[in-house]
Write a structure and sequence with these properties.
The protein is mainly alpha-helical. Helices cover 60% and strands 0% of the residues. The protein folds into 2 domains: 26 residues; 42 residues.
Amino acid sequence: MTPFDLCAKTSKQAFIHAEANNTLLPSVPDSMAVAPQLQEAMLELINHYFNDDNFTEEEAINQLIKIAAGVHFNR
């Protein structure tokens, strides 16, 4: 993994550790953990939070709660 940065190398080590300890969890960005409509809204919110210095943690949490409450799943 020579051409990869420290973040990528750390992520790979975390994956290997989780795999070895049977603690892997589904991925939100890869659509394995949540429905696509929830994934899209969550990733948009996360992107907004990290790119807007005026967007507070409290605002982000409140928006996330609204997103989760507004998703209706078909059974």
